[in-house]
Amino acid sequence: YDSHRTVVTYEVTGAADSVELVYQGAEGEVHAEAVPLPWGDTVTLEGADAFFEVSAQTTDGSDQELACRVITYGTTLVEDRTVGGFVSCDGRVNQQ
């Protein structure tokens, strides 16, 4: 039994009013929803090498700037910025 837990915070910001968002939830489930920016959520991931992912694309398909970041306990695990209308941040919590 692996009791290892990691609390991560997903952040998505950008110039777009809203984005189609997909992210990995606490139970390994994937959430997909349209949200206004800026957006953030904190989830608790189970497992020493838990997978995290958040991606966003502009709801209207425009090439506006988007940025994503995944933070755990004040440390940025991954961040990315794009002007292509789609951005994704993913990885595993133990790969520092």
Describe the structure in your own words.
It is a single chain. The strands form 2 sheets. This protein has a 4-stranded antiparallel beta sheet with strand order 4-1-6-7, with no helix packed on it. A 4-stranded antiparallel beta sheet has the order 3-2-5-8, with no helix packed on it. It has 96 residues and is mainly β. It has no helices and 8 strands. β6 (66-72) and β7 form a beta hairpin.
Strand order of the largest sheet: 4-1-6-7
> Helix and strand succession?
EEEEEEEE
Going by helix content, strand content and strand pairing, the class is mainly beta
Count the strands?
8
The unreliable regions are: none
Biggest β-sheet: count, sense, barrel?
Answer: 4 strands, antiparallel
The global form is elongated
Assembly level? single chain
- Tell me the β content: over 45%
- Please, how many helices? 0
First-residue to last-residue Cα separation: 23 Å
Rg of Cα set: 13 Å
- Overall helicity: under 10%
- Look at the structure and give the mean pLDDT: 91
Give a short summary of the structure.
It contains no helices and 8 strands. By secondary structure, it is mostly beta strands. The protein is elongated.
